[in-house]
Amino acid sequence: FVDLDERLRYYGCMMMIMVMMEVWKFGFEGATDVIYKHQS
Fold first, then answer.
1. Which residues of 6-23 are buried (b: 16+ CB within 10 A; e: fewer)?
2. For residues 9 and 35, which has the higher predicted lDDT (pLDDT)?
3. Confidence class for position 1, pLDDT limits 50, 70, 90
4. Of the candidates 3, 29, 32, 14, which has an alpha carbon nearest to the alpha carbon of residue 40?
5. How far apart are CA 22 and CA 18, in angstroms?
6. How many whole angstroms separate alpha carbon 40 and alpha carbon 22?
7. Model-level pTM?
8. What is the superkingdom listed in this entry's lineage (predicted)?
Protein backbone atom coordinates (compact mmCIF):
# COMPACT_ATOMS: atom_id res chain seq x y z
CA PHE A 1 0.00 0.00 0.00
CA VAL A 2 1.37 3.38 -1.03
CA ASP A 3 -0.17 6.53 0.38
CA LEU A 4 -1.50 9.21 -1.95
CA ASP A 5 1.23 11.75 -1.16
CA GLU A 6 3.99 9.31 -2.18
CA ARG A 7 2.18 8.45 -5.41
CA LEU A 8 1.60 12.12 -6.24
CA ARG A 9 5.28 12.86 -5.64
CA TYR A 10 6.25 9.96 -7.95
CA TYR A 11 3.94 11.14 -10.75
CA GLY A 12 5.16 14.71 -10.21
CA CYS A 13 8.76 13.59 -10.73
CA MET A 14 7.82 11.62 -13.85
CA MET A 15 5.95 14.61 -15.30
CA MET A 16 8.90 16.91 -14.56
CA ILE A 17 11.30 14.51 -16.30
CA MET A 18 9.02 14.27 -19.36
CA VAL A 19 8.64 18.06 -19.51
CA MET A 20 12.40 18.58 -19.15
CA MET A 21 13.06 16.05 -21.94
CA GLU A 22 10.58 17.84 -24.23
CA VAL A 23 12.11 21.24 -23.45
CA TRP A 24 15.66 19.88 -23.96
CA LYS A 25 14.71 18.21 -27.25
CA PHE A 26 12.91 21.35 -28.48
CA GLY A 27 15.83 23.55 -27.43
CA PHE A 28 18.34 21.22 -29.10
CA GLU A 29 16.37 21.13 -32.37
CA GLY A 30 15.92 24.91 -32.22
CA ALA A 31 19.65 25.45 -31.67
CA THR A 32 20.64 23.18 -34.57
CA ASP A 33 18.06 24.93 -36.77
CA VAL A 34 19.54 28.34 -35.92
CA ILE A 35 23.09 27.08 -36.59
CA TYR A 36 22.01 25.55 -39.92
CA LYS A 37 20.30 28.78 -41.02
CA HIS A 38 23.31 30.83 -39.89
CA GLN A 39 25.68 28.72 -42.02
CA SER A 40 23.57 28.97 -45.20
1. eeeeeeeeeeeeeeeeee
2. 9
3. low
4. 32
5. 6
6. 27
7. 0.50
8. Eukaryota
